[in-house]
Amino acid sequence: MKSLKIESTLDIFDSMEALPLEVLMLMQRAIEARKNAYAPYSEFNVGAALLLDNNEIITGSNQENASYPSGLCAERTAVYYAASQYPSAKMLTLAIVGGSQLKTSSVPIPPCGACRQAIAEYEMKQASPIAIYFMGETGQVLKSDSLKNLLPFMFDKSAL
Ligand code: THU
Fold first, then answer.
1. 11-148 belongs to which CATH class?
2. What is the rounded average pLDDT for all residues in the chain?
3. pTM score over 0.70
4. Pairwise CA distance, residues 113 & 143, whole Å
5. Cys bridge to 89: 52, 63, 76, 115, which one at CB 3.0-4.6 A?
C-alpha cells in the first residue's frame, strides 16, 4: 500500500491591521455585512465581502430559517449573488468574518464545506484562483491563496 500526503499552506496575519490596505477595506465591508446576518437560531453571525475584477464588491451575510436547512451561509449568499449579477466577472478576493453573538472569539472562521464546494466551482469556471481571508471578531487573519488549499481532493466536473 502506498500513501498520499496532502498539504496546504496558509498565510497568517497577526491582526486585521497587518493586511494590505485593499484587503483591510474588503474585510471592513465583511464586518459591515455581518451586521445584517439573520441568525436567531445559531446566534452565530457571519459576513462576507467578495471583490470582483470589475471592481464591484458583493457582500453577504448568513440568513437562517425556522426550517434550518433552508438557511444559507454568508459566503454562498455573496458568491451566488455575484455570479447571478456579473456572470462574466472573475472573483478575486473573498473576506470572511464570523463569530457568536454570545461571546467575542478570536478564532478565524473558515468557510464551511458546502461553501468551499460552491467557491471551488467558480474558481474552476474562471480558471484563476480566489484568495480567501478569514477571521474571528478579533485576532489573526488567515489567508489561503486559492480555494484549492481549503478543499484538497475536491470533487469537480472532471469526475463527471
Ligand atoms: N455559517 C456561515 O455563514 N458561513 C460558514 O462558512 C460557516 C457557517 C453560518 C451558517 C449558520 O447560519 C451559522 O453560521 C452557524 O452555522
1. alpha beta
2. 97
3. yes
4. 17
5. 52
